[in-house]
């Protein structure tokens, strides 16, 4: 049932009836009467479009209705109605790219899909790009580049700004400028009370820090005011190597990740991809030089590794790299699950982690061969911490940590078809993380940090920030959401309480 404003205007009684129609979920009927054409029911094409916008099949749950607010005021109204119907679970969706089922959508409840709030505004000269919370990274880059500016957003265009930023945000310019969350100058947030507030260095500064890593625990962000940087070209892209190149590639990556070879202009990751049907391992590097005039710089060892099957290193604006990368992601939606862990780099650990993974993955996949599984092991650099004296984030690194120079985080991923394989592959994922962490502990390189944006639902990224940090986050949650709406009624996400 999609009630247009004109329809409601002429037939107000229909809405009133709907409100008391017990076969109709009450919250949705009330939302429809309060927010008119912003509420979509399963028969509406817009409802279907919202569901198909989730990139991974397991995320395509079916709420009783979807709300697409077009202003912070709409979000405030929706939160009021939902709390009045406090048995209705609800979810908040930014770009929809978190792979954990239920984090950004809900069966039977209500999903607030932010995608109509994706405007990007740039006032001349104040150095800030104001990005609606439903914007994708591509929207932000495209708008900023028109003014010869850029922002710290996702490295694939389809990634939502909201989840990316509130979880941390590893970006192209991270080696130079740090986490994307540290480049937020102001969050506009709707609290459970319905109040629309700013959180920045001078106003609600505790909430400002909490939103940098604490994600959906405090309110619904409706706008991100991001620091603007000068636009730049990147030289880089994807190199796919022959299977025999794995050892050399991981050696080159290890050298690149030692403190003395730290190069502030190089971003990206290396992945070993395993296709079970083809029984084939392919090493892949996806890396960029952010000052093309200095290329290849610290990338040289990686670009020299051979044999290469394809090499797509080119110089182009950021928005072109991110747009091309999106095409590869969107092409074939499948089920995707992931988990993460972090460690300090020493000369052998990357090879040892790889050997461990390579030894276990074929067996895990064989049990679920019907689901055509693929697996990935990705090593990525971590951003630097904000400078001493700068506004803090909540990620829990200490002031002596230099994660950008000597740490990596892992992403372990399975991609497959068919829900029957989910449980088993999740067990495999959990087991892989356990054995890798045993290894990194034995080698004395373990670090507790779990990057929230790549953490599995069974991991505890907020706890990984450390006891003190988690305590602070809990206090902020209690202060700004005393009834615990975001802890209890919002069904998905990593919880504090
Ligand atoms: C193809 C791909 C590429 C990626 N590239 C990168 C990368 O380069 N760097 C990186 O760091 N990470 C990357 N990621 C991980 C990415 O940061 C996370 O998947 C992130 O959750 C995506 O944000 P989203 O808005 O799309 O997600 P969603 O799934 O929509 O949101 C994630 C969580 O945030 C909450 N949330 C969403 N909107 C709001 C809001 N307005 N207010 C409060 N809470 C909200 C949701 O409830 C949900 O729990 C990538 C992921 C994918 C799939
Ligand atoms: C109540 O809602 C259901 C489902 O939309 C509909 O089929 C039914 O006709 C409604 N009943 C009344 C009395 O409006
Ligand atoms: C929405 O999707 C469902 C299931 O995929 C389909 O049966 C229905 O026809 C679609 N409706 C519209 C309006 O596209
Ligand atoms: C829902 O609201 C009712 C009435 O205000 C209250 O008694 C009840 O405790 C609330 N339930 C939850 C789960 O918050
Ligand atoms: C864009 O900014 C860069 C760096 O500040 C500058 O060198 C360049 O001339 C600018 N280009 C345009 C078209 O304004
Ligand atoms: C911080 O919030 C206050 C209060 O809403 C607002 O007046 C101020 O402009 C905000 N600062 C920034 C940098 O947005
Ligand atoms: C895996 O290999 C099979 C067989 O060669 C191929 O059909 C399939 O597309 C590959 N899968 C992926 C995800 O690349
Ligand atoms: C993007 O794709 C187009 C078309 O395939 C290609 O010409 C261009 O070089 C690519 N750019 C980047 C940055 O990969």
From TrEMBL:
<protein>
    <submittedName>
        <fullName>FAD-binding domain-containing protein</fullName>
    </submittedName>
</protein>
<dbReference type="InterPro" id="IPR006094">
    <property type="entry name" value="Oxid_FAD_bind_N"/>
</dbReference>
<feature type="domain" description="FAD-binding PCMH-type">
    <location>
        <begin position="59"/>
        <end position="231"/>
    </location>
</feature>
<dbReference type="InterPro" id="IPR016166">
    <property type="entry name" value="FAD-bd_PCMH"/>
</dbReference>
<keyword id="KW-0285">Flavoprotein</keyword>
<feature type="signal peptide">
    <location>
        <begin position="1"/>
        <end position="18"/>
    </location>
</feature>
<dbReference type="InterPro" id="IPR036318">
    <property type="entry name" value="FAD-bd_PCMH-like_sf"/>
</dbReference>
<keyword id="KW-0560">Oxidoreductase</keyword>
<dbReference type="InterPro" id="IPR050416">
    <property type="entry name" value="FAD-linked_Oxidoreductase"/>
</dbReference>
<dbReference type="Pfam" id="PF01565">
    <property type="entry name" value="FAD_binding_4"/>
</dbReference>
<dbReference type="InterPro" id="IPR016169">
    <property type="entry name" value="FAD-bd_PCMH_sub2"/>
</dbReference>
<keyword id="KW-0274">FAD</keyword>
<keyword id="KW-0732">Signal</keyword>
<comment type="similarity">
    <text>Belongs to the oxygen-dependent FAD-linked oxidoreductase family.</text>
</comment>
<dbReference type="GO" id="GO:0071949">
    <property type="term" value="F:FAD binding"/>
</dbReference>
<dbReference type="GO" id="GO:0016491">
    <property type="term" value="F:oxidoreductase activity"/>
</dbReference>
């Amino acid at each position: 049932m999609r009630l247009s404003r004109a329809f409601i205007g002429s037939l107000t009684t229909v809405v009133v009836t709907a409100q008391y129609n017990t076969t109709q979920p009450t919250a949705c009927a009330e939302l429809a009467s309060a927010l008119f054409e912003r509420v979509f029911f399963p028969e509406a094409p817009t409802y279907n479009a919202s569901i198909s916008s989730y990139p991974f099949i397991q995320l395509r749950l079916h709420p009783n209705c979807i709300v697409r607010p077009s202003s912070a005021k709409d979000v405030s109204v929706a939160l009021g109605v939902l709390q009045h119907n406090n048995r209705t679970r609800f979810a908040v969706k930014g770009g929809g790219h978190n792979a954990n089922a239920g984090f950004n959508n809900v069966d039977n409840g209500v999903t607030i899909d932010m995608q109509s709030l994706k405007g990007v505004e740039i006032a001349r000269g104040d150095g800030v790009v104001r990005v609606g919370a439903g914007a994708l990274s591509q929207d932000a880059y495209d708008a900023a580049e028109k003014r010869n500016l850029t922002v710290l957003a996702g490295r694939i265009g389809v990634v939502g700004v909201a989840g990316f930023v509130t979880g941390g945000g590893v970006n192209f310019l991270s080696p130079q400028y740090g986490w994307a969350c540290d480049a937020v100058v102001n969050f506009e947030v709707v609290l459970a009370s319905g109040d629309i507030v700013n959180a920045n260095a001078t106003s609600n500064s505790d909430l400002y820090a909490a939103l940098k890593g604490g994600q959906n625990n405090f309110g619904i962000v409706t706008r991100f005011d991001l620091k603007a940087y000068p636009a730049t070209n990147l030289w880089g892209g994807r190199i796919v190597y022959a299977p025999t190149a794995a050892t050399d590639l991981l050696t080159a990556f290890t050298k690149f990740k030692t403190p003395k070879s730290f190069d502030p202009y190089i971003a990206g990751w290396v992945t070993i991809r395993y296709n079970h049907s083809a029984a084939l391992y392919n090493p892949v590097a996806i890396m960029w030089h952010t000052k093309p005039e200095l290329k290849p710089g610290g990338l040289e060892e990686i670009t020299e590794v051979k044999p290469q099957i394809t090499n797509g290193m080119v110089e182009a604006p950021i928005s072109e790299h991110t747009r091309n990368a999106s095409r590869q992601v969107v092409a074939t939606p499948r089920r995707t699950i992931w988990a993460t862990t972090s460690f300090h780099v020493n000369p052998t650990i990357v090879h040892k982690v790889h050997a461990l993974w390579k030894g276990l993955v074929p067996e895990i996949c064989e049990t679920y061969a019907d689901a055509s599984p693929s697996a990935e092991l990705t090593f990525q650099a971590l951003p630097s911490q904000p400078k001493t004296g700068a506004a803090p984030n909540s990620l829990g690194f200490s002031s002596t940590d230099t994660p950008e120079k000597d740490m990596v985080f892992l992403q372990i991923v399975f991609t497959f078809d068919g829900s029957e394989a989910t449980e088993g592959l999740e067990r495999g994922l959990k087991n892989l993380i356990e054995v890798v962490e045993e290894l990194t502990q034995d080698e004395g390189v373990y670090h507790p940090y779990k990057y929230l944006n790549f953490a599995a639902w069974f991991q505890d990224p907020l706890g990984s920030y450390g006891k003190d940090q988690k305590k602070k986050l809990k206090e902020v949650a209690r202060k700004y959401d005393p009834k615990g709406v975001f802890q209890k009624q919002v069904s998905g996400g990593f919880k504090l309480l």
